[in-house]
Amino acid sequence: MFATFYEKKQSKETDEQVNVLAESQDNKKPLFETYLKINQYEKFYRDGNIRSKEAVKSSALSEAISKYALIDYLQQQNTTLSDEKRQLQLKILDEQVTYDMQNPLLKQYFEKMFQELEITKQDYIEEYLLVNKEHEILERNMFDSGTIYPKGDQEDWYAKKLGISFDYQEYLAVSEFIHIDPTGTDLDLPFTVSTYYLDFAKNQAGEIILASEDFDRHRLTEEQTRLIYLIEKKNNFQELARYNFKQYQNAIEQETAAGNEDPAVVNDLLKLFEIAERSIDWELGGELHYHYNEIPSFDPSKLRKHKGITLQLFEYENYHLDENIPNKSFAYRMANEEVGEIYGLFNYLKQDFDIEIDETARLKAREQLDKSLTEQMENPYFKKYMDDQLKNLDISLSAYIDDYLLVKEEYKLLLKRMKEQNIGLDTNRRYNKGWTEARYRMAANFTWEYKFDKMWSMNDGEIVEALVPQPELSFSLPDYAPQIGRNTKGQYVFTEDYPLTIYLSDEQQIFFDLLVQTFDLPVLSRYSITQYIEKLDQLKADEKKKKQLHELLDIYKNTIT
Question: Over the stretch 540-551, which tens digit does the pLDDT of each residue have?
Answer without folding.
Answer: 999 999 999 999
